[in-house]
């Protein structure tokens, strides 16, 4: 289950948002969902209610017992690696080893400007931050001499609960090269189909799987999370109506957040200047037909997931958002229960797509 708070404060307060996340997280644990995850964003209704995913996930860890706790993702460019590695190691202990760590580069110019970090350094800062965390988790008396950070010798306390460290995921929006780098390094992958074409996403996944194999990592040992919003109800037309309303709201908030990209974001972000153009040209019916959003009654959503498996492979996990925008609490709870009862069993067999 994925929590991405794209919501205007006029529609739902931060307190209401967090209370709902905690309630739905407990329900995910009860119903057998595989993980709960959240994002790192700042300032705007586009994810801005979650500037620190570790804080929210710590509260979720305290209220759950089985479901995995996932950052989706933290941004190393905005936090010193000693602080980030320590916070994540603490969460690994508080969750008794249920943590998966997703790292991302970030892509919103307003965030980079606020942290006074040049966007053209994002790729290098990302790679350095991930490597620094890995070393801090696994080594003693670490002396780190990076381009952006220099420290040591230091030995991190606490050491992570999981050894040698929590599973590492890399979040990639559009880059096949980033996916291949993650596969070579033996990291897992997080992707979002709403910002790519199906053809582009297939290419990204193919690059990742090929790099994983070439690097000699264990066959089948990789994990791929693909994130979708799902609108589910007993009545098909009702779910589609909700989907169109809240997806249009999501796109409107995203369009405002990515507007500064229209002028280009440098060599680290090829093609990102088109994000604003894509948002402006959004058509809900087209997105639904292309299975970029899941919406309808259980039969319709099962059919969508079957098509997604055919398109992207049976080794994927679906990370689902049931509470987009200010969708009511009752509708989100009903959708989660309905999915667990009538959709999840069709894909819960060993070797099939996981849902979370």
UniProtKB/TrEMBL annotation:
InterPro entries (alphabetical):
Bact_Lucif_Oxidored, Luciferase-like_dom, Luciferase-like_sf
Look up the domain of life of the source.
Bacteria
| Ranges where the Luciferase-like domain occurs | 9-313
Which Gene3D superfamilies has this protein been placed in?
A: Luciferase-like domain (3.20.20.30)
Keyword annotations: Monooxygenase, Oxidoreductase
State the name under which the record lists this protein: Alkanesulfonate monooxygenase SsuD/methylene tetrahydromethanopterin reductase-like flavin-dependent oxidoreductase (Luciferase family)
Lineage of producing organism: Bacteria, Bacillati, Actinomycetota, Actinomycetes, Kitasatosporales
């Amino acid at each position: 289950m994925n929590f991405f708070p794209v919501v205007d404060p006029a529609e739902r307060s931060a307190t209401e948002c967090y209370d709902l996340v905690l309630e739905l997280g407990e329900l995910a644990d009860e119903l057998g969902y595989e993980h709960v995850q959240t994002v790192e964003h700042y300032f705007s209704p586009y994810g801005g209610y979650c500037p620190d995913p570790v804080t929210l996930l710590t509260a979720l860890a305290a209220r759950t017992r089985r479901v995995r706790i996932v950052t989706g993702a933290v941004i190393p460019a905005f936090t010193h690696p000693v602080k980030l590695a320590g916070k994540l190691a603490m969460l690994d202990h508080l969750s008794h080893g249920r943590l998966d760590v997703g790292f991302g580069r970030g892509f919103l110019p307003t965030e980079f400007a606020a942290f006074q970090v040049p966007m053209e350094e994002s790729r290098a800062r990302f790679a350095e931050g991930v490597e620094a965390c890995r070393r801090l988790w696994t080594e003693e008396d670490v002396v780190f001499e990076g381009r952006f950070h220099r420290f040591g010798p230091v030995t991190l306390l606490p050491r992570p609960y999981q050894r040698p460290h929590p599973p590492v995921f890399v979040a990639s929006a559009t880059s096949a090269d980033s996916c291949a780098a993650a596969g070579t390094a033996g990291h897992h992958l997080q992707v979002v189909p709403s910002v790519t074409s199906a053809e582009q996403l297939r290419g990204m996944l193919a690059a990742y799987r090929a790099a994983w194999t070439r690097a000699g990592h264990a066959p089948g040992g990789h994990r791929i999370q693909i994130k979708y919003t799902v609108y589910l109800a007993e009545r098909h037309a009702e779910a589609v109506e909700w989907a169109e309303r809240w997806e249009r709201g999501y796109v409107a908030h995203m369009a405002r957040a990515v507007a500064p990209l229209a002028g280009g974001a440098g060599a680290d972000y090829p093609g990102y200047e088109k994000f604003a153009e894509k948002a402006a040209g959004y058509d809900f019916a087209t997105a639904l037909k292309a299975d970029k959003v899941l919406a309808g009654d259980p039969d319709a959503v099962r059919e969508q997931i079957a098509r997604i498996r055919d398109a992207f492979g049976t080794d994927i996990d679906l990370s689902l958002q049931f509470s987009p925008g200010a969708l009511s609490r009752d509708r989100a709870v009903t959708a989660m229960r309905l999915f667990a009862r009538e959709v999840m069993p069709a894909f819960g067999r060993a070797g099939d797509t996981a849902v979370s």
